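TL;DR need structure tokens for one chain.
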Amino acid sequence: MKALYAVNTELHTKMFSQRDQDRINEICDVINTPPQMSDKDFLLKNIPVADVIITSWGTHMLDEDVINRAVNLKLLCHAAGSVKPVVSDALWNRNIKVTSAAAAIAFGVAEFCMGLILTATKRAYWAGNLTRHGLWTDGIKCFNGPNEIYQQKVGVIGASHVGKHLIRLLHNFACDVLLYDPYCSDKLASALGVTKVDSLDELFEQCMVVSLNAPSTDETKHMIRGSHFEKLQNGALFVNTARGAIVHEAEMIEELKKGRFVACIDVTDPEPPLLDNPLRTLPNVWLTPHEAGTVAQNMLRIGTFVADEIEAFATGNKLTYEVTQEMLLRIG
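>> reply
TL;DR here they are.
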């Protein structure tokens, strides 16, 4: 098979180790070096001979013009998160297989969530800040004090790739995991070892920790409201590494101002938040710059994922993380 890298040079360097490049080279005849830009002109010029295309952030959509020239194309491996920016009706009409590295990115996001949960429940961020000002244990006691997750209920919103991996990590900590996901079957919930709840209200009421790991779609926009945060117990923790648009931010901020609970927020809407956004200054908020998944060595998981999927396709095996057109309405 002939493979086309539609991944710009900077991203390619970060995502594809030499080992994974060698794996792809063993399977495919790679027809180009990574370009400076993967714009429409690049695609129109290079895609006619490609059996496999590797896309990423910044790749132009494979629209009707591009697909009309992609006479040999059989597989699209998206070396990024959501495939929505690159797929089109023309592509789906050709029955080209599509796979996305969102699952690869999910490992880093879930591990970041787990780290936030373990440190924020113990108020480590706040305690550390106050020791710089001459205090000692005062920070541990702030915002209704510390918690452990041992024998506590931890809520996960969304059995996404991130949610599933976070659940696996949580099972190492002797806590009870509750899941809210209307698309998760009872069979899958049982396999994940979680207790499904029927509503967000129930999840927020019962859990000392709530982690948001759902996709951002029209259906989930502003799904988390102030009324949910009102139900959190004193001293609880809310973590959002999903997308800012899922939360009604203004209503969340009003509840945070009461100081009853703490929040670790890695995503906002828009990004970055305005300089006067209260999330930057509220004392019970730990705000980070959307760093959960795609930083440092975790980026290399994406290249490994691409190599794995190309190998599966070439050997006639099922793609592990195929994306279909029907899935687009409920995935990020």
